């Protein structure tokens, strides 16, 4: 044994008896003098005491650090719940659809929407069209229940690949519900597809819906989330029909019979509800014999008789037509959720804030009465998601220009009308601290020859939102050249007020005087754009990986100590 190893052995033992034994052993075997050995032992003991002293000092520093962090956690836990989690919403609180950045050129930031609109108005549940990282990051710790949508374009790949479904669930569900730093996201539904059975879609998505739902369900089961996160499949109301318009004669579309049986069997097996999207405005437009009063829950509407049952509004009639369709295929007791229902406020006749207010209050009153329907008395839909939270200027207008005006709030978070949505007040809370671009607009230059300006206006409207100029719209009566100025300004704001976006061959003019007229509002865009929203998504994805400064500090302290 070498001398370094000898000293190491001696330093590793404690107690006078062991020390004496080692001294005798080493002196006899290695001919080391007792004096030299004692000297070495004293030096080793001194070094050991110094090491122990440093460890005690370091331990004290760690103890102080942990106590401070523990105090911080206690302060967080005892903070007012309105800041850190949901506010204990009751069963009558409202649920809404929130369209995200893909359908808005300048979306209101999620950090404004969640506290300023959702929590301030006691929104209990929100349904998203996709798993937007910036939105989910803002919802973390809010206590708001979330339904995440799977876009139709993903159905084919999710149906054909189990691994794709596993990856999707991991990236968009597991990592959010298991997050502890800034609080987890309360995900309760995965909505597979968006009205994928719509008649106008034909066979584009229909063959892939049940397969995608099945693979998502398997992925949730593998992630131990199947008991808390349910798979749903939102269906448009055209999946069922009644040729006589009587709810008792309701049945599913013949071309969907096989697929619908497969879907209902899947939903029933996993305890999931049937989700239907109801569009009373579109129904009113298409059915000329349907009165506006009947759609708006007015008590003076002429009732529809169906045997012993009488229907006084379109909502009850639509729900019971679905109930009849479910009953005919053996699922009479399946729970129903209304995934979308609302009324637009612009872009068409009868699409105004005043009419929307009447409809929305009638709907809320009907739901809060818990009266149910003639075929399901005292059993209203389990949840009803209002469509929509905000206006979206990039939504498709194939079915009508009103499609961009479903919001209870304008694109910048301002309430369009007052309605009691279950929060105990008829005054909706609007968003605060909204960041707008500069106070300037683009209008037509009346000092130029504008006889051929219409082509420039058409070009502007092909890219920007001019739906308010539609017949019946809020700006339909401003005339020429006001409508041209509206088109110019819409394009100008879409392009973040860049100077060249107000050129139009020299016919445009930038002004600081608001050209708005009566109810026709010439908007100013928010200081966010589509490119900004992409950056927000990247930042949100990174923040979900490292969020939660308190917990991160604990981990850092643990490693350092």
TrEMBL record:
<keyword id="KW-0732">Signal</keyword>
<dbReference type="GO" id="GO:0005886">
    <property type="term" value="C:plasma membrane"/>
</dbReference>
<feature type="transmembrane region" description="Helical">
    <location>
        <begin position="539"/>
        <end position="560"/>
    </location>
</feature>
<keyword id="KW-0325">Glycoprotein</keyword>
<dbReference type="InterPro" id="IPR012946">
    <property type="entry name" value="X8"/>
</dbReference>
<dbReference type="Pfam" id="PF00332">
    <property type="entry name" value="Glyco_hydro_17"/>
</dbReference>
<protein>
    <recommendedName>
        <fullName>glucan endo-1,3-beta-D-glucosidase</fullName>
        <ecNumber>3.2.1.39</ecNumber>
    </recommendedName>
</protein>
<keyword id="KW-1003">Cell membrane</keyword>
<dbReference type="GO" id="GO:0006952">
    <property type="term" value="P:defense response"/>
</dbReference>
<keyword id="KW-0812">Transmembrane</keyword>
<keyword id="KW-1133">Transmembrane helix</keyword>
<dbReference type="InterPro" id="IPR017853">
    <property type="entry name" value="GH"/>
</dbReference>
<dbReference type="InterPro" id="IPR000490">
    <property type="entry name" value="Glyco_hydro_17"/>
</dbReference>
<keyword id="KW-0378">Hydrolase</keyword>
<dbReference type="InterPro" id="IPR044965">
    <property type="entry name" value="Glyco_hydro_17_plant"/>
</dbReference>
<dbReference type="GO" id="GO:0042973">
    <property type="term" value="F:glucan endo-1,3-beta-D-glucosidase activity"/>
</dbReference>
<keyword id="KW-1015">Disulfide bond</keyword>
<dbReference type="GO" id="GO:0005975">
    <property type="term" value="P:carbohydrate metabolic process"/>
</dbReference>
<dbReference type="Pfam" id="PF07983">
    <property type="entry name" value="X8"/>
</dbReference>
<keyword id="KW-0449">Lipoprotein</keyword>
<feature type="domain" description="X8">
    <location>
        <begin position="440"/>
        <end position="522"/>
    </location>
</feature>
<comment type="similarity">
    <text>Belongs to the glycosyl hydrolase 17 family.</text>
</comment>
<feature type="transmembrane region" description="Helical">
    <location>
        <begin position="62"/>
        <end position="79"/>
    </location>
</feature>
<dbReference type="GO" id="GO:0098552">
    <property type="term" value="C:side of membrane"/>
</dbReference>
<keyword id="KW-0326">Glycosidase</keyword>
<keyword id="KW-0336">GPI-anchor</keyword>
<keyword id="KW-0611">Plant defense</keyword>
<keyword id="KW-0472">Membrane</keyword>
